[in-house]
Amino acid sequence: MNALILAMLAALCFGAGMITSRVGLRHVDARSGAAISIPVATLLFVIAAPFTVELSAFNLTAALIFALVGLFYPALVTLLTFRANEELGPTVTSAISGTAPLFAMLAAALLLGEQIPPQAAIAALGVAAGVALLSWRPGATRGRMPGRALVWPVAGAVVRGVAQAGAKAGLLLWGNPFAASVIGYLVSSTAVLGAEGLRRGGRKAVSRDGLLWFAATGTVNGAAMVLMYSALAMAPVSTVAPVIAAYPLVTALASALFLRGEKISVQIICGAVITVTAIIYLAAFRTS
Fold it and tell me: Are 91 and 55 in contact (CB under 8 A)?
């Protein structure tokens, strides 16, 4: 299957995961939700591992890279996103998160020696602009926004981007997306469960509905990760990262259609058009 199609499916799953987590947050706090969703995905990967991971192809260096990536993504990215939401709210956090493909391409160029075509950089900028427009809500930011608070969403975008380049490095040595996922998620689960165990206060009681919605979130996010790694195994980071970053488009449209959390405004339409146009431009360049 074409890498762009896999990346689009990954973005679809990441966007769906945002919707299921929004519903789950009505019943469980965000950090407890992460301590449910990531281990659920890990359990599914462990169950599937005997059928999807060939140990005969095992590469120790690649496994260590996958483990290192798992420490940062999704574990650290999740915690940084929570802190950014606390400090700045979801509007600024989502907008800044759209810059992740720029950091991914820079990391790929520095760490992997990838040549970044100008067309890919333009597409990444287009996606970032479209996501910012989709996410921005006039008057939704909190009154005072200290500059140092921007460290959290920027750090999240940097880590997300570098993690994609790191995963690509591991996949060049051991091109098994399931191996990358199961190793990364095992480390991520350990990290988030450890963070949850050290946490004091602020928890909501975990209800049955919250458990089910975050289990669904873990399932679709796990599928998104496999699809993203499959795309990265087939194509350069500069092809995959901008498409993955378009997942807020899925979230915005699905929220408007199913949750009634958004109204289809001119702003959302413009953001969608810019994002889709950037991806079509990237696809046309890659297939030409």
Answer: no
CA distances (Å), origin 205, targets 14, 39, 198, 219: 26, 18, 17, 22
3-state secondary structure of 130: helix
Q: What distance in Å separates the CA atoms of residue 109 and residue 2, rounded to the nearest whole number?
A: 23
pLDDT at 93 over 90: no
pTM (global) more than 0.85: yes
Question: How much is the pLDDT for 287?
Answer: 62
Higher-pLDDT residue of 155 and 135 is 155
pLDDT value of residue 91: 61
Q: How many CB atoms lie within 10 A of CB 56?
A: 5
73 Rama sector, left if φ>0, alpha if ψ -120 to 50, beta otherwise: beta
User: What is the DSSP track for 200-269?
Assistant: -S-PPP--HHHHHHHHHHHHHHHHHHHHHHHHHHHS-HHHHHHHHTTHHHHHHHHIIIII--S---HHHH
Average pLDDT over every residue of 28-49: 91
Rg, C-alpha atoms of the chain:
18
Looking at the predicted structure, is the pLDDT value of residue 108 above 90? Answer: yes
Q: What is the DSSP letter of 138?
A: T
- Map out the domains of the chain as residue ranges: 3-287
DSSP string, 48-115: HHHHH--GGG--HHHHHHHHHHHIIIIIIHHHHHHHHHHHH-HHHHHHHHTTHHHHHHHHIIIII---
- Contact yes or no for 160/103 (Cβ under 8 A): yes
Terminal Cα-to-Cα distance of the chain (whole angstroms): 17
Is it true that the peptide bond before 74 is cis, omega within 30 degrees of 0? yes
